[in-house]
Structure formats: structure tokens, C-alpha cells
# Entry
Amino acid sequence: MSSNTGREKRRFPLGILGGANLGKTAAVVFAAACLAAPGFARTSQNFEQTFPLSSGGSFTLENVNGSVHVDGWQKEEVEVKAVKVAAHNAKDADQVQIDVQSAPQHVDVRTKYPKGQGAQVSVEYHIHVPYRVLLAGIVTVNGSVMVRGVDGSGELRSVNGNVEVVDSSGRFNEHTTNGDLRMELRKLPDGEPVAMETVNGSVSLGLPADAQADLRMLSMNGNLISDLPLQSQGTLSARSFHGKMGSGGGEVSVRTINGVVRVFVEHAGI
# Structure
């Protein structure tokens, strides 16, 4: 390893499932937003390195302040591009380290801040990974997580930020507290449960028309909307639904407290 420092068939047309849409009750707080405010002397540093990773290998990344963009490509390698931005003192950027641990089947990237010091630095990542990949953990606190063009699975998390997967295939989990979730899948293979959970935000799930799934939807203070043919199981309420897509399959759970849940047909190539 190398290191670099019962059952009724129903169709729910779009908008048929009602409930009061209270919208978001809390604004997303982005701690690093001050970095973009006028009057701050910002200083940036660039990081760019490439590491080998076999197709089907795993990739993890931990960040604190800043968004993470992950795109799939044909190469069997990981390209890590990052921009560190210091709000006030250029030396703060020097104190925040990007540590990469690399092996043939796994690449791990961590943003390391100095202990006990308030370095006001954000780090924005743009990553390329093999399109067949396990995203074993893509995490940030203040910022969004965006994944595009991969075939695999993944665990994606933020606290204050949106999380989305688009133009992809596989089974992914998305979690945030203050932010929207979006998942648009060309193909949903059978397998482990899929979970999309937020507190203050809406959830959008796009699945192919032939998807097979055991679907659970819940919005405590919002609408449930579906343009997919669904078979209900058990009690149906305005804010919760349990049923099947097709003949059923692996569980897909979609939950929010304050926001709208929408399930729609994802058309390949659009």
C-alpha cells in the first residue's frame, strides 16, 4: 500500500397522493459560505494526482467543508483533483492535508484538518473513478455530493448539502439532514436495500419502467407523487405508501420529514 501524505393493484398518476407540502423548514447552513463573501482575501491551492484502481474496486473519500463531484470513466485509475481555499490566511491552506492511501483494489482519500485549530479552509473535490466501482463511502459535512456515470453501488452522505446520483446503474444509499436527494438510475439490479433519507428536503427517485422493487415511501409533512404503476400492500395513507413495482424485488426506501417525495420513470439517454 502506498500513501500520499394483501394486495390491490393501483396506478397513481402524477400528483394523486396528497398531503400538505410545508416545504423546507430549515435552510441549509453551509459553514464555508463565508469564503465567498466580499472582502475576504481568499487564497487557493491545487492538488492533482492519479492512482491505479482496478475496475470493480472500491473508493472512499471523507471531506468536511466543500462539495465532492465523482464521475465515472473508462480508465482503471482514480484521478483526484482538489482545490483548497483559505478564507484569510494562506498558511491555513498549508495546514489542511489531502491524504491518499492507494492499493490495487482500493483508494482512500481523506481531508485532514489540524487538531485544535480553526483553519478556515474549504476543499472542493473533482474525482474520476472507473465506471464499475464500489463507492464505499463518499462523505462531506458542509457541501454537496454528486455522482455521475457509474455502475456499482455506494454510500453517499452529507449533513448540510444535496446528494445526487444521475446517469448511473446500481444500488446506492443517500443521506443528508438539510438538503435534497436525487437518484436517477438507468438500471436497478436486485440486491441490498436502497435507502434515501433526509430531514429538511425533497426526494426524487427516477427508475426504469421495468424496475422490480419493494417500495416504501414516507413524507411526514409533504406530498407523495408517482407516475409509475404501483401495487399497494397494506394500508395506504396520504403520506406513506408500501407496495411493489412489477413483481417486487429488493427494498427501496424513500423518506423525508419536511419535503416532497417523487418517483418517476427514468428514460435512458435523457
